[in-house]
Amino acid sequence: MNEQGRKPLIDASFTQQVLFPIREVSRLTGVNAVTLRAWERRYGLIQPIRTDSGHRLYSQADIDDIRSILGWLERGVSVSKVGSILARSHAIAGHTSGASDAWLRWQHQIRLAVQCFDLVGLGRLYEEVFAACTLDQVFAEVFMPVWHDMAVRRGGYGQASEWLFLDQFLRSRVFARLQLAHGPRSRTVLLSPLPGQCHELELLVTSLILGSDETGVTPLVCGQPLQELALVCERLKPDALVLFSHQPPTAELTRQLTRLAAVLDCPLLLAGEAAEIAHDSLAGSPVACLGAQGDVMRQRLRQFLAGQLDT
Q1: CA nearest 270: which of 290, 252, 297?
Q2: Which of 141, 175, 234, 311 has the fewest CB atoms within 10 Å, i.e. is most exposed?
Q3: Where a domain ends, among 154, 177, 200?
Q4: Taking all residues of the chain, what is their mean pLDDT, rounded to a whole number?
């Protein structure tokens, strides 16, 4: 940082990058310049470099971050909370920088296949990524970033159709893997979306990621009434009920979750970005937070079912 708290001026490390002025970034992302400056000054979300004359220049990584921010804002996450989510994503990327080029290449190929509505080519890419990556990486680093980005930018002609094509493809493939994994397990978990707070694909992917050889995860359909979950659990008798959402729970929803936990015969857990955001506010309550990252969610679920993790 320089004396004004800004990023350094352009140096040799940026000379090979394509850099964009703020007006072009506004055109590409739909975020006006005033908002971009506010995100930089008030929240530190985007830190463009500066020319000698003080003009802002943004890298492709900055543009990707802006689109990620839009995705979280669309889900109801406040702008003040987005910074911690981005920081965690950047930290993960920093530990896996050697693989990031491959992930970006696959993302580009996926976009091309979707633009052509190339089902065969998309299927070939899906199998290629699965053969080279872990389950978490397949979705968190390759497919879901493309899906999220396309979901945010559905305003242009043809973009909604392209997103629906990718969404349908991924739902069918994830559902097929869930069916293959279906079988007797020593423990069973129900996964339910909080009403109106996630897409079916996000729920299916989370079901796949949470499952293990010991634990079978059954997703409930989007639209499942929150007030009827006690009845569902009474009849199915799961070892735990996991609620999933990427949106921060309101004070009223937190009260509803506390009441629900009191009448359940099994533990109540929260997963997704909602669990990260609400972790402090739910501390000491009967609702346990699993987090949002695949490996962390699996570990915490396993520990909780084994009685090794408190709420």
Answers
A1: 290
A2: 234
A3: 177
A4: 84
